[in-house]
Write a structure and sequence with these properties.
The structure is a homodimer. By secondary structure, the first copy, chain A, is an all-alpha fold. In chain A, α5 packs across α6. Chains A and B meet through α9 and α10 of A and α9 and α10 of B. The structure holds a DNA duplex.
DNA sequence: CCCTTGACTTGTCACCGACAAGATTGCGGG
DNA sequence: CCCGCAATCTTGTCGGTGACAAGTCAAGGG
């Protein structure tokens, strides 16, 4: 039972945004185009997101939530930091549109609580995976966490911007790269 | 002797673009605003860059050239990979506007030869620094190069997007992070 | 049965990127 | 000296976009 005119405009617009960003990049997405895609007037989406920034904020929050779920799920299956890193990279490649928007605070409403929550949850999942390695392996915990996040985030970013594709399988390359940081565990 | 009406519109627009991006992010820069800033009609810059993408391509190429210079200069002073990484990070923080545009191929004319040249030059400087470590330290050279690039690029990106600022001095933190990859040399 | 509230539409404004056409300037050949 | 030419910049315009204001419409509680 669709609750109203469209049914679930909010979801539909978010899904259309993912498609549009995947096709034309985050820069080339317009509220009016999304409205057209879902068959609604040009100001329809505004009601749900208030802003273009509001829409991208919601999309980023959704992305962080998905990432957090993926990381937590991986940690339940293995203690390997390398596999946690591979999960991070896999998320970035599979959810390119979300990932592209997640780390662009200039496109967000910086004070959005949903976004902050989701981001913190993902951050905690990643940091916890590094702590599990134990102090003797990593030296300073905070530095180790930053190093871990940096290497997987850098790899994902560079791959997604086309700077790394020399015919490799990205996940396998990511696995070897992650293994260089904390050894192959 | 200014060669013409404005003198050097091309340079002036590039400089204005750096200011504008630093203030409002790469998304919020408009050719018309830049034209206004340098006191020229709204279509003036078009003649030098053809496109908005053309302008950003030129800016990215300039950025890669500056980065290559900085990396090469560092390699002349030390063999330390860690310091090379710190130079990469320092560049990203000090030339935020350039760096922000350099890794956004969706904003570029992908086939621009100047851009490709400058990028290759910077890439070679970074890769050379890793090779200098010697094979016994790094295992597979290509993987080591990707890992090195990933960790410094990820750190720089995360810092610039406000995900790392917990009161540290970024260069010192970057130094410790880089040292976790190939040891403190 | 109405009327409040939330969901969406219509209309409008200033701004932007791209393009076309014209004006201005400097320069070199005759 | 000056004429033409090319590079540089201006003016005018078009379709598209984000934001806002005001109106329309459906559902559900009183």
């Amino acid at each position: 039972m669709p609750p109203y005119h469209h049914g679930d405009l909010r979801r539909a617009v978010l899904a259309a945004a993912v498609d549009a960003i995947t096709e034309h990049g985050a820069a080339g997405v317009s509220l009016r185009d999304l409205a057209r895609r879902v068959g609604v007037s040009h100001a329809g989406p505004v009601h749900h997101f208030k802003d273009k920034a509001g829409l991208l904020t919601a999309l980023a929050a959704e992305g962080f939530a998905l990432l957090a779920d993926a990381l937590i799920s991986t940690r339940e299956q293995t203690d390997s930091f390398v596999e946690l890193g591979v999960t991070y990279v896999r998320f970035a490649l599979r959810h390119r549109a979300h990932f592209e928007v997640m780390f662009r605070p200039d496109l967000h409403h910086i004070d959005d609580p949903n976004l902050a929550d989701a981001r913190d949850r993902a951050g905690a999942a990643l940091a916890g995976g590094v702590e599990a390695l134990g102090e003797q392996r990593t030296g300073d915990q905070r530095t180790a966490g930053v190093a871990a996040w940096s290497i997987v985030h850098g790899f994902a970013t560079l791959w997604n911007t086309g700077n790394l594709d020399a015919g490799d399988d990205p996940e396998e390359l990511a696995r070897r790269v992650a293994a260089m940081l904390f050894g192959a565990d």
